[in-house]
Amino acid sequence: MSEATPHDSAPLSEEQQIAAYCEKGRTHWPDEPVVALKTASVQSQIEDTFYEHYLRYFQNAEAKRRWSVVDDIPWAEARGNASELVVSIIESFCAVESFLPDYTSKIMALIRRSRGRALFQANWGYEESKHSLALEGWLIASGKRTEDEMEDFERSLLGAEWKLPFETPRQMICYTMVQELATGLNYINLRRLVHETGEGDPCLDKALRWLSSDESAHYNFFRKGVKTYLALDPEGTVADLKYVFDHFAMPAHALIPEWERRGAEIEASGIYGPKMYLAKIRKPVLEDLQISRTMLKTAGLPSHEADALADKIETKAEIAEQALYPRLRSLPTIPTQRPSTTKTLLTV
Ligand SMILES: [Fe+2]
Ligand SMILES: [Fe+2]
């Protein structure tokens, strides 16, 4: 696989990564307006748009983001100098990824009538399946765990079963949007930690880069889905967002042995915790969704935070509008035609 991926550019700071995830989308994948026919039912518009989002996602993944667990991680460069803390955190993340059979089967059953979401979910399952393989592979390649120890650990997880945390497809897309951004941040911060402490190795570094890249792409698909719902049913979607924020928890933690200790060490290491969730996840997500001042408050933000965020969103929108206005003025008059996005994508 070519090494010319976005992940090989100069490393971004955590703030820059989050801003990039939230505001720009990934790898030449700009935000686009909902283009489904306005004469169709709301449900039909949502489905058309999800399908278009999926085709774009798939096209981008096939062209720029595919990676191989076998060939694209330098396994021979795994070292044994990581601390037991880092090893334990990687084992914890591996455990969360290991509930994939539940995530895929239960979410698929919930959204299978949506072609765009169902196809995405199938692709998502493939991509996620590589994450636990990569993490487990590093634990073994680095000599920090034996194959027998990993088998025992995986057996200890078998008795538990993850259940859907929310009941409706819209609530679940709100949940997965938040969860994917949080998961990506977990991997970014872990990678930074091992880099800063000098415990890392090229093998772990590369594996974590692939994983955070995937999580970022997943987040972007879901955020586009939430934006679609917001465009077509803002009140209902904001009510769901609030419900999800009020009840949000990362997946499977309650099912993993010793999670109390594991969660505490992840938080103490500055990788992820409740404060980080509020500042680096909930707030940027709401900012990115560009909902109104009133809706920010409805979504559950404290009034002063909602006002500050709304001011920021409005200022950004004004700047964007001012930048766009001269360009619009200089455009020649041409016949307008609805872009045939689906057809274009299908011929790629
Ligand atoms: Fe993952
Ligand atoms: Fe993911």
From TrEMBL:
TM segment ranges: none
Transport is among the record's keywords: no
GO cellular component: cytosol
Pfam families: FA_desaturase_2
Database matches in Gene3D superfamilies: Ribonucleotide Reductase, subunit A
GO molecular function: metal ion binding; stearoyl-[ACP] desaturase activity
EC number assigned by the record: 1.14.19.2
Cofactors: Fe(2+)
Similarity-based family: Belongs to the fatty acid desaturase type 2 family.
Subunit and interaction comment: Homodimer.
Originating organism: Armatimonas rosea
One GO BP annotation of this record: fatty acid biosynthetic process
Keyword Iron: yes
Keywords linked to the UniProt accession: Fatty acid biosynthesis, Fatty acid metabolism, Iron, Lipid biosynthesis, Lipid metabolism, Metal-binding, Oxidoreductase
Name of the protein: Acyl-[acyl-carrier-protein] desaturase
